[in-house]
UniProtKB/TrEMBL annotation:
Top-level taxon of origin: Bacteria
Domain Mycothiol-dependent maleylpyruvate isomerase metal-binding stretches: 16-157
One Pfam family in the UniProt entry: MDMPI_N
Protein source organism: Nonomuraea jiangxiensis
Listed name of the protein: TIGR03083 family protein
Gene Ontology MF terms in the entry: metal ion binding
Length: 276
């Protein structure tokens, strides 16, 4: 176990999530593709274009070793990500929905094959900045981050077109588990004595319990058995939306129960599992 907690192998979930996504997209009518989503300025077509970008970017970089876009002078990581995402989405507005569906099915299988070659505990191709900025990420966390990205964007499309699905515990549970690995980073500014614990409890069929504990001057993931100095409890829908800013921190706090050390509980509810 590392500071990130135990390994999560999300690789078997990619085909299942993708099948659900392709089934959803194939059922949409022409008007559905222009419906607005929670992502400012992006409609359903744009979200799908962004998911296509994720596939192409990972295959190009992780499989083919192609560097792609470079940082502009003094550009921060969030600014870089926002810029290149917007550039690609604008380009995909020239593509028909059927072309994008076909490409997602084709490239998704190639990505599955790529992930299958990885040693999950080897260093990641891309560090997960929302989990730590001073420690290299393991491959399993990088891959799991990609799974959560695909799943969340599918839910954003489903919300936009009012079609539920892909929300069973077998698909959602790993998303929550991965997002919980952002807890130590959310607490990073809070200095406390060795052994201080903060517990996150997520209710619902896919929920669970996670703890971050203060060890050797930093917060690390730890089994959720220590008596916590702060406890935050929220339902699973609120948690994943908080982690992706589908709801604001303030709204999530209204929906949550927060007990114990108020500063620690407040820090825990700033948890963010996307680059923003």
């Amino acid at each position: 176990m590392t500071i990130f907690g135990p390994v999560i192998d999300t690789r078997p979930l990619f085909p299942r999530e993708r099948d659900a996504m392709l089934g959803l997209l194939g059922s949409l009518g022409p008007a559905d593709w222009s419906k607005p989503t929670v992502c400012p300025g992006w409609d359903v077509h744009d979200i799908v274009g962004h998911v296509l970008n994720d596939h192409m970017r990972r295959l190009s970089g992780s499989r083919d070793g192609y560097g792609g876009a470079v940082f502009a002078d003094d550009e921060t990581l969030p600014a870089y990500v926002a810029r290149v995402n917007e550039e690609f989405v604008r380009a995909t507005r020239q593509l028909s929905p059927q072309v994008m569906i076909d490409l997602l099915g084709h490239l998704g299988r190639q990505l599955d094959a790529l992930w299958a070659t990885y040693d999950l505990e080897a260093p990641a191709d891309l560090n997960v900045s929302w989990a730590a900025t001073d420690v290299d990420s393991p491959a399993w966390l990088d891959i799991a981050r990609e799974y959560t990205e695909f799943w969340v964007h599918q839910q954003q499309v489903r919300d936009a077109v009012s079609v539920p699905g892909a929300d069973g515990p077998e698909l959602v549970g790993p998303v929550l588990d991965v997002f919980a690995r952002a807890l130590p980073y959310a607490l990073r500014e809070e200095e406390r004595p060795e052994g201080t614990a903060v517990r996150l409890e997520v209710t619902g069929p896919a929920g669970g319990r996670w703890s971050a504990v203060r060890r050797a001057g930093r917060w690390v993931m730890s089994p959720a058995d220590a008596a916590p100095a702060a406890l935050v409890t929220m339902d699973q829908d609120t948690f994943w939306r908080l982690a992706t800013r589908g709801v604001t921190v303030e709204r999530a706090r209204e929906r949550a129960d927060m007990d114990g050390d108020p500063a620690l509980a407040a820090a825990a509810t700033t948890l963010l599992a996307v680059v923003a």
